């Protein structure tokens, strides 16, 4: 309790620092930061369209942020969520276009299932490479994102092309109903919330979640206690991928109604950003995702109302993440130095004893 | 068929490959130098992007490509130092801070683009002075060599020198030796009286300078404009190539040529109905496979060394 | 100026709560080989690392060549002619031998490193001390013995005349050791002063001029070789306190519960590889494995518990083969395991006491129903455990990172013992815990035995081994050097066996001969040995 209060205060502090840095930038270009921030808030929350945009932006972000966080809980740095969103999306589009022989409810189910399965198969590759060959999952997933992007791009400019100027697929037969028109917010947000709640519940209340948390914090202990750290690691990566798949499916069925090349741009990255800001604390992640969605939705209004470029919002988010990754409390540092000394001592005493890791 | 092949694989492909590779080579060297100090420079992409913007801006305002490059290098170094301080001093997880830097770079350059040039998307202007081409008149009448080597950009020639220079620095100089020692076994370096963290800071600083240069080449040499997110994963490709080449400059550059080669071939193949995407994704897949195989071999070797059945 | 090139007075050094050196004293005369001996964790390595400036001292004084050192760091130490050959070699694997030797002190020629000059200088030392070194090989390609010579050359290149060798022979074969000693003697002839840290008494007796003994961070005296004997040193190292024998009941040793048959186990270190080892543990007995750290105990334990592969041979638990089964399956057959390293294996320090208490059985009833964890059952269990094992603080929702060493270990013990498994493997169960916790942990092991479990106890604490075990197996470089019953074992004969047993050839040979015969009934033969040993001991100290 004390711990989570502490980390909450730290996030709050970091947040104000980021806002402050943003304010300095705004001042530097001769604008009033308070006006700018107010315009932003008004744009995001003051109108129905704004609120709709917040929800529309929040939906995929919530899923991708949770996807990153759940992998991080098992000790993985899964940059590959974006690729999983893409492949989940293209699969949902394929099924949604071609499997008209299914009844409507079954078709919905098939779209989601297909998206999840394909995304998981995709996520399996870096997971296995890391668990059994110790290949950096960061590098592999970054590379695989590009491959996924090309696969999607190929499919909608070739076999699945709608035959229009932009690379996109034909429309899908089933769509997720929109709410709050004219924004692209849709019922998918409820699916996302339910899925994320289930994942959070799983992480903190079930034995699988316990195993994931154990492996992420101390794989040697997990193996000793009879928890197969490799399998659990792979499992968490798969769950992460599945969430990416769901996000892709919702974007295709809910927002666009077809697969649009490049629709997933930055969805994975921004989700990762939200998770990194709170060090993958899954209870805080949704709030950061929401906050980022507000920033993004309000940015345009701010740019129109004042002459502050909307990219200030991304700058603030980036500063937020950079500060959040640092441990900058002095007293803590002092202690850690001592601990480090002790650790090297222990390590040098025990290195000889081996251990295959 | 063979006629088509001839069209694809002709002499100009060699320069096209090299041209496409150059920005990636710079990026890969930026990542290689920190990798030698055991810092995975995921922020290469961001450093490069900041460099690209700074180069265009300074070149535009001063009319000097040299000042543009210089400013880009300083900008890159500044970004790299943010990363260095937060990683080395404040224990930021390297991937997290690297990704943060990349996002900052994208946002900051967008922001600056709007502030300085009141535009978004891209900025090109005749006042941007590009890096000049090196025209050698004596080559004009030599058939093959002329098409191969004439009219290279200054920074394209320089990258070759630079690869050799880094190879020399890494493996022949005192600093390079210490850098490698710090990267592989910092305690050994410390017991030899070397301050490991100081070496790491130096590596990050130089990496920033190189990354800035990479960006400058991209925006003043490879093209003459700034486009939002114009690095387009070239930084990540550089990191992958660095893995591929084990942070050895020459081998790393080879890896980059693989990217450049598939880039140029892909562009040509597209004309013949082979989807460019397949060609474009090949280098990524190849890199993943190579990484996996090299790690598997390593694991087998360790297993053998530790076996009780074999006496060493 | 005093006669000493190095003097260390009243040295104190703690790492957090670990008091590594409580009262360290040391001095070194020019041109001598001075051995520093003591059990594992006695503080000898720490003392020398302090001299080399790797950590700052908390208090005390270090004087080098008459000059009192304020703040020491490795660079400064090197400048004052101190060189150290670390137990874990400070060599960069992917660099060549030549590069490693010159690291930090590279001769330059323009911008380049002057490799030719370096080569010449090194060759000079190679010839002078008759060392075989291949300068152009990568360190990963050379043998351990050669790597060690490289380390020595490194110190010489840096101009050291005071050379510290931290357990240099621990990783060497006897032949390599012989070669090393030749080099050390040559160095001594050249008026270099050497510090030789070791456990191995026979080697210490062979090579040293003077010997310092440390025990539990305390200085136990300096003696010259002529004035001492291995047994005398053993006693100084281990201490002569009367053993607190816990009431042992050893009448109902039942059927074989653990049966290890000719196992071969891999290891990073040559001397820790196990090549053909057999042992067994019966129900209702504690079998102790004594030995110096790093002689294959950890590998053996990991193999039994499923954490390390077995390359040849078989392991049976309760009649079922468990060779190369996963830890989970081995546990299901009937294993409880107190690991030697509670901070990495034993506990997940970021998690709560409660979560750690159920770590092993979290997916079984009552702690989880279906896939959901049953917090109520976990709370009940934790409450009971905290009470029964006197874990403090009693708030089991606190993370284990806030616990002291003793209480942290109690959490591990509580978890493993409360399951009442047939076999309890306990590795270093009382390492780094306070006296109170030691007593309660040892009592718990004794109780487990009374309840019919077979207990395999690994400890470097001889006192613990002798006071708890019914049978004692001594392990050295991955092989069993002897097996004794509780009655016949004492620190002397155990100590000798642990150190390879070459101090008294007679004893060792007797012991090996008797090994197959030694069991509970065979008291006659054993008493013979013990008496013989005690007589030996009498010459020394008594």
From TrEMBL, chain A:
Membrane topology term: Multi-pass membrane protein
Coiled-coil stretches noted in the UniProt entry, renumbered to this chain: none
Keyword Transmembrane carried by entry: yes
Entry's localization field: Cell membrane
Membrane-spanning parts: 12-30, 50-72, 84-101, 107-129, 141-165, 185-204, 232-259, 271-295, 315-332
GO molecular function: transmembrane transporter activity
Source organism superkingdom: Bacteria
Classification via CDD domains: TM_PBP1_transp_TpRbsC_like
GO cellular component: plasma membrane
Record's keyword annotation contains Membrane: yes
Any Pfam family hit: BPD_transp_2
Keywords linked to the UniProt accession: Cell membrane, Membrane, Sugar transport, Transmembrane, Transmembrane helix, Transport
Full protein name: Simple sugar transport system permease protein
The organism of origin for this protein: Oribacterium sinus
From TrEMBL, chain B:
InterPro entries in the record: ABC_transp_permease
Membrane-related topology note: Multi-pass membrane protein
Keyword NADP set for record: no
Designated name of the protein: Simple sugar transport system permease protein
Keyword terms, alphabetized: Cell membrane, Membrane, Sugar transport, Transmembrane, Transmembrane helix, Transport
A Pfam family reported for this protein in Swiss-Prot or TrEMBL: BPD_transp_2
One GO CC term, this protein: plasma membrane
Transmembrane region(s): 12-32, 39-61, 67-85, 97-117, 157-177, 240-262, 274-297
Subcellular localization: Cell membrane
GO molecular function: transmembrane transporter activity
UniProtKB/TrEMBL annotation, chain C:
Keyword Hydrolase: no
Keyword Cell membrane: yes
Keywords, in A-Z order: ATP-binding, Cell membrane, Membrane, Nucleotide-binding, Repeat, Sugar transport, Translocase, Transport
Biased composition (Basic and acidic residues): 510-534
Any Pfam family the entry gives: ABC_tran
Major localization class: membrane
Location within or outside the cell: Cell membrane
GO CC annotations, alphabetized: plasma membrane
Topology term for the membrane: Peripheral membrane protein
CDD domains: ABC_Carb_Monos_I, ABC_Carb_Monos_II
Gene3D superfamilies recorded: P-loop containing nucleotide triphosphate hydrolases (3.40.50.300)
Region of interest called Disordered, as start-end residue ranges on this chain: 510-542
Full protein name: Simple sugar transport system ATP-binding protein
Taxon lineage: Bacteria, Bacillati, Bacillota, Clostridia, Lachnospirales
